[in-house]
Amino acid sequence: MEPEFKHMPSSTPRSRLLACSTVLLLAALSGCGKEEEKKTAPATPALTVTTARPSTAELPLRLAANGNVAAWQEAVIGSESGGLRLLEVRVNVGDVVKKGEVLAVFSADTVNADVEQARAALQEAQANAAEAAANAKRGQDLKSSGAVSEQQATQWATAARTASARVAAAKATLDQQQLRLKYTQVVAPDSGVISARSATVGAVVGVGTELFRLIRQGRLEWRAELPAADIGRVKPGTRVRVKGASGSEVVGKVRTVAPTVDAQTRTTLVYVDLPPALSTNAPLKAGMFAGGEFELGASNALTVPQQAIAVRDGFSYVFRLNPDSRVSQLKIGTGRRLGERIEVVSGLAPDAQIVVSGAGFLNDGDLVRNVQAPPAAPAKVAAR
Question: Is residue 28 one of the residues assigned to a domain?
Answer without folding.
Answer: no
